[in-house]
Structure formats: structure tokens, C-alpha cells
Amino acid sequence: MIPARWPREEPLLERLLHVDPRTDTVRDAHIRDLPSFLRRGDVLIVNDAATLPGSLRGRARDGTPLEVRILLELPGGAFRAVLFDGADWRTPTEHRASPPAVVAGSTIDFGELSAVVERVAPLSARLVELRFDRTGAALWLALYRVGRPVQYSHAAAPLELWHVQLGYASRPWAAEMPSAGRPLRWELLLALRRRGVALASITHAAGLSATGDSAIDAALPMSERFEVPERTVEAVAETRERGGRVVAVGTSVVRALEGAAALNDGALRASTGETDLLLGPGYQPRIVDGLLTGVHEKGASHYALLRAFAPEEVLAQASAQAEERGYLSHEFGDSWLILAAAP
């Protein structure tokens, strides 16, 4: 797959591949055509998490430069993070050298901000929990001054935070942009409403997609924070009552909804917590009927989740067609809609 290297000027003209797991068919379309694949009574659920300025350039206690990428804010106020060497995003993650070793009690200096490493994970010396030297508004003001969005070597230039924010974003929970929702401009959301499609939201702390550390990458996605509000639970219940379908925008929405149900004996209830639910072949979704997602390469952790919605042979057909016809991948790429056609 060819990665999209920069945000495109006309998101509604981006490609959309409709994958119908009921008929095993694959059809080319555009994002602006999304309303034609949904019907009155369906509900579209988005992840409204804002993207963190989660890439922080700092120095270890001995002055060695390094990069910290925030994964997740923990309930007690510490942050789970991954350490990188002093190179920048232009170097592919898999080619980055090992960062300087840290131990519990080590300090990392970011200039006007510093943090103490409270714990080094047994999984990898690069996976740590750290606590910044301030809290509340003072911490967030400093993070937004010194941090930048996480980005990868396929990008054409340095990204600014506005490049990776969704129009409906709220709280800064996501380590990376919940990119499936990126092309959903307001005119498209209004067209969906006019068609009779309900809109609802959850908040999910979408994590990092890759670190270059084999142990960490094998464990992705890790446990992630989510919140499913009561109004979304009601929207799903109303959709079920009228025979509609629940369509998730992005794998993070699937994980939040299915994770919330798993914590409540299969029933979707308003809840806040963390989910470590892993979805894939053989998993039968309880809440979600269809998925709008980005173009994921085989072998990616997000691609495995797609196998909960369509057989491997159908996904292979979709991947072959997407590659043949030049669909673009990664966060600024094109989209797939995995959803059985309306009868």
C-alpha cells in the first residue's frame, strides 16, 4: 500500500471501498457517497477524543537526547509512555536506535517541563510510567507548548497539531488521531442526519500504532481508556428498537463499545474504564454491525480486528483491489466501509 503523505484538500473526494461481508462483494466509491450506504434508523458512532501533543523532546539525566511519546494518561495522574532515541520522525521507528536506559527515579528534562520515571515495565525497558512536575491546567499548558503530535516517516513534512485534530474533537485523550473520522466533514455529517442516520459519540484513548520495539508492538493495542456516555447507550438502544444498524467510525469505537459490553456481562451500559479486549477472527461483535475504517496493511494490529467483521478471503480481495486501484493508507489515506448492504 502507498501511504498518504499529507492531508488532502478535498476529503469528500477521497476513496471509499465498500466491503459487503454478506455477499462477498467489493465496490469502489467516495467518502461523499457514505450516506448512500446507510439507511434511516442507523446510527453512526464516532470517537471524539482530541489528539495529544504527545511527542516530547527531552534529555536524560546524563544529557543524552531522547523522545518520549505519550501512550495514555493513567487514573492516578501518571502517564504511560514509550521512549525513543534522539532521532526524529524522519527516521522510521524500526530503524531508531535504543534510547538511553532509565530506571525508576530517573528524571527527564523537557526544558520548561520535567518528569520522573516511576516505573519501567517488565515488557520492555522502553515502556515506562512517568509523572510530570506539575498537574492540572499548568501541566496541560506546558504540554501544549513543548509537545508536538506523534508522526511517522511517511509524512512529507512536520505536522502541526491542527493537521491531526477532528472537527468534533473534545478531550485530549488520543496518542494518535482517531483517523477514521478525519474525512467526516460537517457537510457530510449533515447529509447523514438529513437521511435519517443518528449520530453519537464515545471517547477512547487511541494509542500508538507502532514503536519499533518488537515486544511492545506485539502487545499493541494495549489497555486503553474509554468512556461511553448514557446518551450513546440510549442511541444504540433506539437503533435496535427500530431495526437499524450500529456503525462504528474506527477500530477505537469498536473497542470502546465492545469493551464496555464485555465489562457489563454483554450489555451496553454507560461506563468509564479501560479495556484490554482484543478483537479478531472468531469474535462475534455484540454491539457493532459495521465499521468505517482506514486502509490497513496486512499484519497491522488494526487489520486483525477487521477479521471480526468479514472473512479473511473477503478482506484479501478488498486489499488486492485497494492496492491495484491506488488506495492510500495510513492516517491521511482512504477508507473502507465494512457493512452488509441494506436489504
Characterization of the model:
The chain has 343 residues and is α/β, with parallel strands linked by helices. The strands form 4 sheets. Strands 3-2-19-17-15-4-13-14-16 form a 9-stranded mixed sheet. The protein contains 8 helices and 19 strands. The protein is globular and about 65 Å long.
For the secondary structure, the number of strands is: 19
What is the averaged pLDDT score? 95
* Helix coverage percent: 10-25%
Alpha carbon gyration radius: 20 Å
Helix/strand structural class: alpha/beta
Q: What best-fitting shape do the alpha-carbon axes yield?
A: globular
Outline the low-pLDDT stretches. Answer: none
User: What is the H/E string?
Assistant: EEEHEEEEEEEEHEHEHEHEHEEHHEE
Count of DSSP H/I helices: 8
Distance between the termini: 32 Å
Largest sheet: 9 strands, mixed
Beta-strand proportion: 25-35%
Properties at a glance:
single chain; 343 residues; 8 helices; globular
Question: What would you say about this model in short?
Answer:
This protein has 343 residues and is α/β, with parallel strands linked by helices. 21% of the residues lie in helices and 27% in strands.
